[in-house]
Amino acid sequence: MTIQSNWTGSETTSNIVRKQIFDRWGAEEADKYDPKSNCLTFRSWINNGYRVKKGEKAIKSYIVIEKKDKEGEVISKYPKSINLFYIKQVEKIGSES
Questions:
Q1: Rounded distance, CA 60 to CA 84, Å?
Q2: How far apart are CA 74 and CA 68, in angstroms?
Q3: Averaged in consecutive runs of 10 residues, what is the pLDDT profile of the chain (97 residues)?
Q4: 3-state SS, residue 8
Q5: Where are the domains of the chain?
Q6: Burial class (CB within 10 angstroms; exposed 0-12, middle 13-18, buried 19+) of 80
Q7: How are beta strands 74-86 and 39-41 bridged, if at all?
Q8: pTM for this prediction
């Protein structure tokens, strides 16, 4: 199964996450980081058949929410914080810890 998220973030948010991965696991893991396939939200991991390992701490990032009027025009934007988990923090559901 190929894991694919609906990530639509920016280079800025990608770099924020990459730095946190680098700080925790080093340059090799930071180079492997792919926001579309190996660093997802809690719910996205579950939807892909994985669970976050007990005791893991989230990687902090944010998304930009667009508020639209009745015609669909963007009238405002604001950041919303999100919690992500890197592939090293999850396990396949049904596997032993």
A1: 6
A2: 4
A3: 78 95 97 95 94 97 92 94 97 78
A4: coil
A5: 11-92
A6: exposed
A7: antiparallel
A8: 0.85
